[in-house]
Design a protein that fits this description.
Oligomer: heterodimer
Order of helices and strands of chain B: EHEEHEEEHHEEEHEHHHHEEHHH
Distance between the termini of chain B: 54 Å
Radius of gyration of chain A: 18 Å
Helix content of chain A: 10-25%
Largest sheet of chain B: 8 strands, mixed
Number of domains of chain B: 2
Helix content of chain B: 25-40%
Number of strands of chain B: 12
Shape of chain B: globular
Strand order of the largest sheet of chain B: 3-2-6-7-8-9-1-10
CATH architecture of the largest domain in chain B: 3-Layer(aba) Sandwich
CATH superfamily of the largest domain in chain A: Nucleotide-binding domain of ferredoxin-NADP reductase (FNR) module
Radius of gyration of chain B: 22 Å
CATH topology of the largest domain in chain A: Rossmann fold
Number of strands of chain A: 15
Shape of chain A: globular
Number of helices of chain B: 12
CATH topology of the largest domain in chain B: Aspartate Aminotransferase, domain 2
Distance between the termini of chain A: 33 Å
Strand order of the largest sheet of chain A: 10-9-8-7-11-12-15
Amino acid sequence: MENPYLPYPVRIDDIEIATEDKSLKTFKFVFLNKGDEEKFSYQAGQFAELSIPGIGEIPIGIASSPVEKGFVKFTVFRTGVVTSYLHNMKVGDIMGIRGPLGNWYPWDKLENKNVVIIGGGFAFTTLRSSIIYMLDPANRSKFKNIDVVYGARSPGMLLYREELFEWEKRDDINMHITVDGTDDPDWKYHTGFVPQIVEQNAPKADEDTYAIICGPPIMIKFTQPSLTQLGYKEHQIIMSLENRMKCGIGMCGRCNIGKELVCKDGPVFTLEQINQTPKEY
Amino acid sequence: MKFITIDKKDWAKGIENSRETYRLFGPVKDKNGFLIKSLEDDILPDMDYHDSVMSAKSVLFPQTEKMLKTTLDESQEDHHIMKRVETDTSLRAVVGIRPYDAKAIEIVNLNFDTEDYRDPYWCDAYKATTFIGLGINKPGPFDFSTSTGSGPFSEEGLDVLLADLDDKYLAKVLTDKGDTFMATCRFEKVADEKESLALFDILRKEAENNIVSKIDTDKLKEKTILDLHEAPFWDDIAFSCINCGTCTFVCPTCWCFDIQDETKRQSSFRIRNWDTCMSPMFTIHATGHNPRDTKTQRVRQRFMHKLKYFLDKYDQGIMCVGCGRCVKSCPVNIDIREVCNMMNSYEKQE
């Protein structure tokens, strides 16, 4: 019997400071055992438990994309016991990864659709995974227009800046990058909060358009009315939730919203589904 | 159906015989009352017990259980690589388990043995265990098991059901596992099937008639989760709750757990412990945000999980076997029977 609590051993291959305040770092892991990478086959939108022996585990969205091979990447905000410990670890250290866990963005349903991706702050990790996946030459033709609204407090707090500016130059993806504010006179992108940028720049909804939102609760709360105004129906708004988790496999009982377990039945839900459950997230 | 008669004077010898093959667990009295414990050599299950403070849940799902281990000593080749701890998966038997507690094991099994994932610690223990039940001739005042799909002579989850007939036990052998256990005990005196069935029927009816405590669950299914969740009575129910968690601790169907790492010198273990939804720590995020911040939210979670979420998710009844332990143990007299009836009869005011 496979033991779902047993992490795959990995080595930290690279650590990159992701934001100017150093509160986020991107960790690149390689699997110690050859076969494990294949077993860890995942879809954009899933998460995993980063497992540090002697310290504990944390559930983190997978930031690398299924089309990127040879490694997995996670961008981690330093906030609790495990993430603080992880931020002090070094390249070459051995730890574990358990997963992939949870469901993913509904890629089958999104085929031949327009996709609008909306992210805020450091909740852009699985969205990065998704964008890389959709832009892959083997996949790009499966989707119609792709729009991305991504905002952070300041330019230095945007994740994956180099990639963002690369995507900005492409003509097969419409980037709407924004910051809450900046004193950089050369800033050539938007200034303003995500809900406002969504209202001004996101395409109006038709039957073939879906929005994926990932961000802090306050951003999600204020973005919903903007999307409703643009004509998005509840089933066209796809969200990824977070809750405290331990097991990640639907057994330990704490991450539920109603009868749904965020770790196993989620983390991806449509607004239609979420509106049927108590808002305990 | 096979029935076996066991003279009580042969009981101790038979139980001793079973130790050749099984590790035994059963009711034992200590200063806190009756508990289901490992029966060390020479200790027999106390079959005269009435209610045990705790159920047999811990035989399969210990309050604290080591799951994984590793060494942090970097001079070792496999340092920081976690491995499953060795667990004792040898055969074990719980002798004298109450029928409602056996049903509770079946309920918990739904959580740990799923299509997507199997919890190996639970599944291995479950597979290794034989359940020898003892029917309840005189149910106590807190017992409402007949309203939960169980009952004093319910057979669900049992391998053998014993009826206490004063000078002897009549054993109804329900599974192959049960048959093997009886053979190991060398309990071999076969009883007449028709007579035995009739006798069990009489005992069952008599015991069921003694149960005066009942709950209604028939309308829970038709209500929506949101209507019940937003019902106006939760503040009143939770008002006296002190969030002590006793209800979840004594409950035979509560399965929630926490996972923690513990390190001693260079040896590190990943351990799971029973947890409780009554604690604010259960759901608090690292950011400090807590989706179930107030005690009303937590009390509601417990009852909604048992009486609605579980029912909707599995369609196998409620997550309560009517043992009455939480009612009996609650220091402020919160009563699941009252809450269940409130939920069942609730009509949303438009």
